[in-house]
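Hi R.,

Here's the chain you asked about this morning:
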Amino acid sequence: MTVEEALLAAVGLVALVLLFLGLSEVLEGDARARLRARRRELRLREPRRAAPETAPARPPLARRPRSARVATEPMPVAEPEPRPPAAADDWRDGVAALLRAREFGEARRLIDPALRDGRAGSETVGALLDVCSSVVARDLRRLRRAVRRSAGDEAVLVASMETTRVLLESRPAAALPAQQRRRTARRLWRGQARLGLRRWRAGDFDAAVETLFQALSVPGIDERRGRVARELLVRTLEDMAGQSLELIPQLLGEGDRAAALEQAQRLLVHIRRARDEGVSPEDLAVAASRARQLLEHIEQAPVR
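And here is the predicted structure, written out as tokens:
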């Protein structure tokens, strides 16, 4: 055997050994690779959630007795905001229609019991006050236009103002916004003051004094309007006393002492009431002096 053949044989032997070792490693590595791939697959999977613990299943026939059932409280349900029923809306709309039609007698027959029994809430009273306020303003304008034509009926304006006052002085009206009450009070005061002025100019002093007292007592009027009402009232009382000074001697001359005394006493009652309403004694000095003259004249007159 030559050297070359020996080398080739050695190389072949080494190649066989290496081939055997490599095949064995490959075979063993294939199993380990499969194991690593399996572990990697398990790690990549999403872990399953643990099932909640549950009570053991109850046998089909082992039911809980009715008396042993646990009572559960009902969930609180939010109550809807109260809304006025349709009947209340119809009632309010019907009364408002009567007010607009100047059917104040029929309207009062519905309003007065509702206020007395508490069936009319602040929302209803506020809506009716808005209607009354508009009606008073329109009736006052109509009366002023009628006065220029030497005509006009005060009854409608008086009835509308009386209804407005009843609503304004009611308990539900106290819950209304101050601006709404103030607006209604101003219109009511304007109607009372202008009507009192109209009656004073007509010489109907008794009616004028009563109307001006109502203007002075309108709730919520400011100081300026109160001062105007007081000045008109003082002027009316002075003219009423002057008229009585002319009328009482005539009554005494006719022997009607009772009528003369009644006239003087009515004037004194108005003066005392004006003082109670805040009119100063200085402002009432003229009317009070004339009232004293009336009493002295009646006392000095001979009895017939």
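One quick note: Residues 49-53, 67-72, 77-84 have pLDDT under 50 and may be disordered.

Cheers,
M.
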